[in-house]
Fold this protein.
Amino acid sequence: MRNKRLLFVLGSAAVFGLLAAVSVSRYLSDAQASVGHMNNVVVAKVDIPLGTKIEAEQLSTAQFPANAIPEGAFDSPEKLVGRVTVMGVAARETVTDFKLAPEGSQGGISAVIPAGYRAMTVKVDDVIGVAGFLQPGTMVDVLTVIDPPGNNLSSNPISKIVLQNVKVLASGQNLDKPKDEREADTVKAVTLQVTPEQAEKLALASTEGKLRLMLRNMIDQDDEQTQGADKRSLLTGERATPAPEPGSLKSEQKATPAPAAPVHRAPRPQRVAQAAPAAEAPKPQPTPPPRPNVEMIQGTKKSTVEFP
């Protein structure tokens, strides 16, 4: 009996040991297979600002699984030396092709300008430059105050929005956004990304009139068509509009359904009811005079006797 128990224990230990050995062997083989499928991917060793010509000291490599490599990544730092970034690359971030300008591009703002656009600089101050909050990447509208043609005798200038949704490429000589975007930066000039037609309007507006830049929300892509304002329209006054809540966006606002048009129904003909003869009201009966009575007390009882 004892021999059978001993054999059972030994057999169970051998089976469990064999299972453990098979599991460890399979784990080691899977780990070796996963290591064999790891590839080198070029990442940034330090922060690389926008418009910078990449150097070898700014790059390093990291191991990525073959099925997790980002599209457009590079496997060798030598392929990226001399390329120019068109957007900022953070440290330990993968450097991909869509973050780089075409090969042969020079560093600076020229590599950031998309095809078909131009960079044009306008002079600003604290008022024109929205108190220094015009940072690279923000969107602005351009407004000018100018005398209309044929208005030489009487001075009646007009203010009009001439360009909308224009991107700020640079604030002063800075091509990249500051680390703290809440802080204003006092600059004397901003560079705008415009088309050739917009550049012509901007040059005329800055020469013949006074420019104003209006900062707009990045999500707001609407095209506002206005009539412009002159002295006559200015003196007509303006109705008060409800102020939007802080941080409210158009994407967060629900569309308000249009009110239903009122339904006009034809009046129904009214029937004239004949007045019924009023019933005679009953005459009030005279109140009978009170009867004489005597209050009698018998021991603890009290009673009242009325006489006819």
The first helix runs from residue 2 to 36. The two ends are 126 Å apart (CA to CA).
